[in-house]
From TrEMBL:
Gene Ontology molecular function: any one: GTP 3',8'-cyclase activity
HAMAP family documented for this protein: MoaA_B
Keyword Lyase attributed: yes
Alphabetized Pfam families for the sequence: Mob_synth_C, Radical_SAM
EC supergroup of this enzyme: lyase
Catalysed transformations (reactions): GTP + AH2 + S-adenosyl-L-methionine = (8S)-3',8-cyclo-7,8-dihydroguanosine 5'-triphosphate + 5'-deoxyadenosine + L-methionine + A + H(+)
Gene label: moaA
Lineage, top ranks: Bacteria, Pseudomonadati, Pseudomonadota, Alphaproteobacteria, Rhodobacterales
Protein name per its UniProtKB record: GTP 3',8-cyclase
Length: 334
């Protein structure tokens, strides 16, 4: 085992979020425009390069890998990558392999994911109303997603539902969503939104719904017990005394977890973000492609981690940060 990745504030980096594609089969209003221009294939890391990169991180102490996108399951051949990562679970070097998905491809891949050692997944789902689901995702079908979630349960996967809180859109579903998750045994996390994407005025739902307000509304009907749970993500958790279910809240711009932040994020082009709320980025694709040996790559990773800040600062455009973070959180919540 190599020396672990320790940042300047003595935090061990043990959690890596990896975007394996910028593509998605949905076009959610707060995330993407309808006519997206995607990256040329040559800019994307190959599945073999993703394996090499993730393996380097695992060798330096990363114990949790969360696979994200876009929609990770639309990447051609993606299960070869999951199968490759499963060897690190078998060796004990990796403690958890998980993913965040829109659920559209779960009927096809849930059993295979479970066979690769995936135990739990996050599914982004903002409404249980089929017409509203079609509206917010533009291209999505609710029935397909619900069937995918059912397939995940059949395969033994634990499902956490990530709901982006949208004022005037899913406010009236707060208790329905909570009841559905309680009934089916899903954890539930609400994510605060800052509008993104190609939101023409006709779609601008004046969406910002403060989680403080959402939480207060929950408290009108339920007894909320604060939990000390830490899943390595940015969520704060409560338990509803009446149902026993766990509910999380992610507010992108807060500093909830900066002091104990153990995670970094890798894009599908090999850019490493040391902090979600900062623009500092390290290019790992160049050293990866410069040599078949990993020495240069590993030194680049160490140099990047040495720049990890103590927490986010918002000296530059808050809106830029808010947008980036909402989009990221909505696809990769905790």
């Amino acid at each position: 085992m190599e020396a672990p990745l320790i940042d300047p504030f003595a935090r061990a980096i043990s959690y890596l979020r990896v975007s394996v594609t910028d593509r998605c089969d949905f076009r959610c209003l707060y995330c993407m425009s309808e006519n997206m221009t995607f990256l040329p294939k040559a800019e994307l890391l190959t599945l073999e390069e993703l394996d090499r990169l993730c393996t380097a991180f695992v060798g330096m102490g990363v114990e949790k890998l969360r696979i994200t996108g876009g929609e990770p399951l639309v990447r051609r051949g993606i299960m070869t990558f999951f199968r490759a990562m499963s060897r690190h679970l078998e060796s004990g070097a990796l403690r958890e392999l998980t993913l965040t998905t829109n659920g559209s491809q779960l009927r096809k891949y849930a059993q295979e994911l479970a066979d690769c050692g995936v135990k739990r997944i996050n599914v982004s789902l903002d409404t249980l109303d089929a017409a509203k689901f079609a509206e917010v995702t533009r291209w999505g079908r609710l029935a397909q997603v619900l069937d995918g979630i059912a397939a995940a349960k059949e395969a033994g996967l634990k499902v956490k539902i990530n709901v982006v809180a949208l004022k005037g859109f899913n406010e009236d579903e707060l208790f329905d969503l909570a009841a559905w998750c309680a009934r089916d045994g899903h954890d539930l996390t609400f994510i605060e939104v800052m509008p993104m994407g190609d939101m023409g005025e006709e779609h601008r739902l004046d969406q910002y719904w403060s989680l403080k307000d959402l939480r207060a509304r929950l408290a009108e009907r339920f007894t909320l017990i604060d939990l000390a749970d830490r899943t390595g993500g940015p969520a704060r958790y409560v338990r509803l005394a009446e149902t026993g279910q766990r509910i999380g809240f992610i507010t992108p711009l807060t500093h909830n977890f900066c002091e104990s932040c153990n995670r970094v994020r890798l894009t599908c082009t090999g850019e490493l973000y040391m902090c979600l709320g900062q623009e500092d980025v390290a290019d790992l694709r160049a050293p990866l492609r410069a040599s078949t040996e990993d020495a240069l790559l590993k030194q680049s990773i160490r140099n990047a981690i040495a720049r990890k800040p103590k927490g986010h600062d918002f000296d530059y455009s808050r809106q830029n940060v808010a947008g980036q973070m909402t989009r990221h959180m909505s696809h990769t919540g905790g």
